[in-house]
């Protein structure tokens, strides 16, 4: 099924705007993840309660997982962007499969941002109370 210049009622221009938003969100998440890892490093360089070491290790493992997830999502976003650019240059029609990919990626990004925000909150709350 082909949809003329739209994906589920959205124009290609709107999808391009959304792709740019996703890229910016992923870059922000990547930058914030680096800041949190640097904070962990600074904590380890100070005299801190050694009983917190297990929590520091857990946060470190979670931040590494976030790095991996962000890298995968950036790759997926690039693939979708290439797909979008291919449609823009072609007849301007979009396959139904492409619609589904964008809708799925929209949900994935939403959950990734939510999960990262929760990790940030937990990190700041935990170390705010325990250092």
Rounded to the nearest angstrom, the distance between the terminal CA atoms is: 58 Å
- Fraction of residues in helices? over 70%
In percent, how much strand structure appears in the residues? 5-15%
Major beta sheet summary? 2 strands, antiparallel
Task: Tell me the strand order in the biggest sheet.
Answer: 1-4
Q: What overall form do the CA principal axes indicate?
A: elongated
Instruction: Determine the number of helices (DSSP H or I, runs of at least 4 residues).
Output: 3
Question: Which segments are poorly predicted (pLDDT under 50) over 5 or more consecutive residues?
Answer: 1-5
Q: Determine the mean pLDDT.
A: 86
Measured on Cα atoms, how large is the radius of gyration?
19 Å
The count of β-strands is 4
- Topology as a string of helices (H) and strands (E): EEEHHEH
Question: What structural class do helix, strand and pairing data support?
Answer: mainly alpha
Characterization of the model:
The chain is mostly helical and 131 residues long. The protein has 3 helices and 4 strands. A hairpin with a 2-residue loop joins strand 2 and strand 3 (10-11). Helix 1 runs antiparallel to helix 2 (53-89), helix 1 runs parallel beside helix 3 and helix 2 packs antiparallel against helix 3 (96-130).
